[in-house]
Amino acid sequence: MAAPHLHLLLVLSLALSLCLFPDTARAQLRQNYYASSCPRVESIVRGVVQNKIKQTFVTIPATLRLFFHDCFVQGCDASVMVASTATNKAEKDHSDNLSLAGDGFDTVIKAKAAVDATPGCRNKVSCADILAMATRDVIALSGGPSYAVELGRLDGLSSTAASVNGKLPQPTFTLNQLTGMFAANGLTQTDMIALSAAHTLGFSHCSKFANRIYSFSRQRAIDPTLNSTYAKALQSMCPRNVDPRIAINMDPNTPRTFDNMYYKNLIQGMGLFTSDQVLFTDSRSKPTVNKWATDSKAFQQAFITAMTKLGRVGVKTGRNGKIRQDCAVLA
């Protein structure tokens, strides 16, 4: 009778372990992860970010966008940093990533070099964690909230352009499409609305929203959900047959400040993308937009919650990852 009892005990023990640790990757993440191995890592990264911002403001939206694009494809593992080779077309060369500004990549590369140049820190900190820290810092340094970032990610072991297919939100997405894509990454609709406010910073190219200001339909040339005055301003900046690489501020009012102006703009019909404006035109998300447009503190707290959850997506641990010496090279 001892054997069956022992077997039952082992099964119960395993079941309890699974309940307590349903996600071992998430369990590895914690604040102050490098407290003993590289205690100054956060201040080192912040110093590099500050210097980069002095050189160019583009550092801020570029780094923030890089983090989103990384986490949504194979998880937050810095696979978006990898350069293509003669035998492998990497994530960064997928059409959805070609518009990622080089300053985001450069920020991580320089921060990695600064960390590795610090005695005792060489090859101790992953590129994925450096990107997560740098993202927190650009948000705070542009007026947004600061937060304790969870660390402990390893860098991914693969990066392919094919892995990007269907993984990133598109400017034409409906609320259902947005909600579904975020849900696939463990994020709620509220998280999605909060993270969309990243569009309060940075810029977009005319080709990404031209469909809203020219020949929207047979009946209307302009998207009716778009503020008419704003639409005319966009037409003046993006005339027909204009160079599609021309960049337009995502937020026409405070493009260099991380704030809740994004939601105020949506109420005025000034969301640049269809996927922005739908957050106000759809009755399911409209109440949240209205609340955060008037309650900056509530928005910032929701954003911190969403960013923390985003940073847990697809985290690599153990043999599923490594710490790259060169963020652009898998080997």
UniProtKB/TrEMBL annotation:
GO terms for molecular function: heme binding; lactoperoxidase activity; metal ion binding. The record marks R65 as: Transition state stabilizer. The active site is at H69 (proton acceptor). Ca(2+) 2 binds at T200, D251, T254, D259. Its EC number is 1.11.1.7. The keyword Plastid does not apply. GO terms for biological process: hydrogen peroxide catabolic process; response to oxidative stress. Binds 1 heme b (iron(II)-protoporphyrin IX) group per subunit. It is found in: Secreted. It comes from Salix viminalis. Residues 28-331 form the Plant heme peroxidase family profile domain. Residues 1-27 form the signal peptide. This is Peroxidase. It comes from the Eukaryota. Belongs to the peroxidase family. Ascorbate peroxidase subfamily. Belongs to the peroxidase family. Classical plant (class III) peroxidase subfamily.
